[in-house]
Backbone:
């Protein structure tokens, strides 16, 4: 009888270990990625649209999202160049109607991230941003 009782006990403990093991593993802290938000201050204000037409202004508050701790110092060091790139990009926008759509704003965010990453590559920083966020975006006609 003792043999059967021990066998049943071992079997129950084995089943418990198999079922409870993954649940205990979830309690262990996972290694998480870094998210660092770097604001470009002050907000950008520039005219957009076709030259010669009614003057239309764009105001955009821009925040860059980085995934590494080492990215912030590179962004701060090259902030004048990065701001220049965005001023040029925003000034190139001629389709005002597109800027007022969600798709147009998304395309502009992607273009801004590409410009910033291209400048960081040209400066040989070895850094990249993960995303550009518009925390404020106003088109005034």
Residues:
């Amino acid at each position: 009888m003792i043999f059967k009782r021990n066998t049943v006990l071992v079997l129950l403990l084995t089943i418990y270990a198999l079922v409870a093991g993954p649940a205990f593993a979830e309690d262990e802290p996972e290694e998480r990625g870094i998210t660092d938000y770097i604001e470009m201050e002050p907000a950008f204000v520039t005219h957009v649209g076709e030259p010669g037409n009614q003057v239309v202004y764009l105001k955009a508050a821009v925040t860059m999202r980085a995934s590494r701790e080492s990215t912030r110092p590179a962004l701060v060091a090259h902030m004048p160049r990065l701001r220049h790139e965005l001023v040029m990009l925003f000034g190139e926008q001629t389709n005002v109607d597109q800027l007022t759509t969600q798709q147009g704003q998304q395309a502009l965010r992607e273009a801004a991230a590409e410009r910033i990453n291209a400048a960081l590559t040209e400066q040989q920083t070895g850094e990249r941003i993960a995303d550009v966020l518009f925390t404020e975006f106003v088109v005034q006609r």
